[in-house]
Amino acid sequence: MTERQDGGRRDDGRSDGGRPDDTRPVGARPDGERSDGARLDGARSDGARPDDARLDGATAEVVRSYLLAAAEEMRATLIRTSFNPVIYEVHDFGMSMYDADLRLIAEATGLTFFLGANDFSLRKGVEYVGRENLCPGDVVLLNYPYWNAAHSYDATLFCPVFVGVDLVGFLCVRAHWMDLGAKDPGYVLDSTDMHQEGVIFPGTKVFSGGVPNREIIELIRFNSRMPDLVIGDLNAQVAALRTGERRFLEILEKFGRPTVDAAVQRMVEDGEARTRAALAELPQGSWTAVDWLDDDGVTEDPVRMQVTVTIADGTFTVDFAGSAPATPGPINMPFGATIAICKVVLKALTSPDEPSNFGTTVPLEVRAEPGTLFHAVYPQPTFTLWTGIVAVELILKALAQGMPDRLPASSGGDVPGFMMVGIHPETGQMFAVSNNDPVGWGATPSHDGMNAATHVSGSTGRITPIEVLEARTGMFFERVEMREDSGGAGRFRGGVGLRRDIRFVVPGEFLSVIKKTRSRPWALEGGLEPEPNQVVVFPGTGREHRVSTRRTRVEVGDRVTLLTAGGGGHGDPRERDPELVRRDVAEGYVSPDAARATYGIDDV
To answer: Region annotation Disordered: residue ranges (predicted)?
Structure first.
């Protein structure tokens, strides 16, 4: 299947991930048009502009700023009211605002994957529910992975915005819930079908006309091992939506709908024009890259990923042909999630300093055959979506062949995630708290990569503070330090990763979630590849061994060592400024032995 970001689609007749016989949305004709002439795919059936009102550039920019401020206020509301550290500390969320035609008009800072996935998810949710069935005050929950563009614990809530009887827009908030009745607590690492991954809501009203749907909320409560956290986070997302709704209506009242519609149209046109102009300035051509995931969580076999990226005629095409078929284990990507990672790369290449809107991704075309690694269909498992993280690096690896002077080397190759699940000795309650560790960023043609930073796919995501991890779990951190010699050597050095030594003070399960430990991240222009991610369980004992994605039972006194990857090097290490090498040795990033053997600097 090919997905175009102008709202259109070319389908080869195969299923796009919906359940058998349910692919036609409620209230829609087969051509995607409703009986009232409105389209469900974001396009206007009459081809008209939202409004022909003329406005000056200053007014358009003021309206845009108001919309962005409203999205940021939604973000602040979610952070202040959520119960779950992965939301209020890590910022594992994404929130977006849309016009009545389902076009993105503003978003708040959050996980880039979530922001791109919201576009796909909202369209699917509205198709399923039907516009005619939406009323003021409704809030809809969607976590069906093939429509939600994520796994089942990334809960998407959306609501319509009405002025009187007129539907004028939509708001969307996605955030990670900690438990929704999957077969295992915390995180599912070895599911073999969707039904092992939690309770599914295909587009279900949790609020109807502003009134909570008690039956649905109780269903959620009784299917969670940590109901207080989950219901608290649901209410926090609803609060964020209500905040956005109030601000959206205030903006419409302040400027008038014709002016807002005209400003949105200008934003969208400008976004598309900027992207196409930036693409025209990039090298034109097609480039292919291959990489491997460690395994799928069920078998030990490595999993092939392949991508071909083409820049031509003002379009950015990403084709995943050549990748593995869908796997037995839960690393398969819903197609909407695949589109989202491609949006991340396109945005970074073309307009990294500008806010996103519908127009910025119109030139994107994504191809992945249904039933393959990058286009999961029912009931293929999708819970461990680290595939998308590694795939961001894969797309950049392909592009770097055509523009090595514009791109950095690989940044760690993956996100080293970990979690502990157990019973807290003070409260007697179950805990499940996670962290995504930092990695070294890849070196660029002009400077070293950052040390121990959130992976490039993580946007403004943060690590979980040690104080939270120690207080709310059974982990005690004996050591946290920069990992010497982990960055790839080069004329410019890759950033170094991190080392953590953990001792467990209560029994439980330790979950490591990493999909690239067997192969090194890539370097550029003669730079060297860095040390990969590693997880060593029970170090210094007869049980010591390395794992990647694994659920490990731990007892009091057991230990784990986490070693995160550095970034790839850029350029010949022998061309590095000797003073920079000496500084690296003094600061502990490079060992004296490596300075002599790799960089050729003896006097360190």
So the answer is: 1-53
Residue type, 262: A
- How far is the CA of 154 from the CAs of 87, 91, 117, 157, in angstroms? 11, 13, 11, 10
**Sequence-separated (6 or more) residues with CB below 8 Å from residue 250:** none
Which helix (H) or strand (E) is 394 found in, with range? Answer: helix 386-402
Residue 180: count other Cβ atoms within 10 Å of its Cβ: 20
Strand intervals (E) in 89-165: 93-99, 104-107, 139-142, 154-163
Angle between helices 112-129 and 335-350 (to 10 degrees): 130
Instruction: Please give the Cα distance from 239 to 234 (Å, whole number).
Output: 9
Three-state secondary structure of 162-184: EECCEEEEEEEEEEECCCCCCCC
Q: What are phi and psi of 574, to 5 degrees?
A: -70, -10
Strand order across the 545-547 sheet: 475-482, 498-504, 559-563, 534-537, 545-547
| Pair of tokens at residue 73 | 């206020």
The Cα 381–Cα 330 span in angstroms is 4
Contact 171, 139 (CB under 8 A): no
- Token representation of residue 231: 């219901």
Which token pair is 128? 């399923």
Q: Where are the alpha helices (DSSP H) in 11-168?
A: 57-81, 85-88, 112-129, 145-148
- CA–CA separation, 295 and 329 (whole Å): 9
Question: Could you read off the pLDDT of 66-114 as tens digits, one per residue?
Answer: 999 999 999 999 999 999 999 999 889 999 999 999 999 999 988 888 8
Cross-strand bridge partners of residue 419: 434, 511
SS (H, E, C) 525-580: CCCCCCCCCEEEECCCCCCCEEECCEEEEECCCCEEEEECCCECCECCHHHCCHHH
Q: How far apart are CA 421 and CA 429, in angstroms?
A: 11
pLDDT at 82: 96
Phi and psi at residue 94, to the nearest 5°? -155, 135
- On the CB side of 583, CA atoms within 13 Å amount to 7
List, in sequence order, the alpha helices (H) in 256-355.
Answer: 257-281, 335-350
DSSP 3-state assignment of 125?
helix
- Say how far apart CA 454 and CA 435 lie, in whole Å: 11
In DSSP terms, 519 is beta-bridged to: none
| Cβ within 8 Å of residue 407, ≥6 positions away | 396, 399, 400, 444, 524
Tokens describing residue 77: 């509301």
CA 17 to CA 174: how far, in whole Å?
20
Report the pLDDT value the prediction gives residue 95, as an integer from 0 to 100. Answer: 94
Give the single-character DSSP code of 39.
B
Neighbours of 250 (CB within 10 A): 12
Give the separation between CA 265 and CA 286, rounded to whole angstroms.
Answer: 32
**252 and 163 Cβ atoms separated by less than 8 Å:** yes
Q: Give the tens place of pLDDT for each residue, 469-504.
A: 999 999 999 999 999 999 999 999 999 999 999 999
Q: How many residues does the chain have?
A: 604
Upstream peptide bond of 379 is cis (omega within 30 degrees of 0): yes
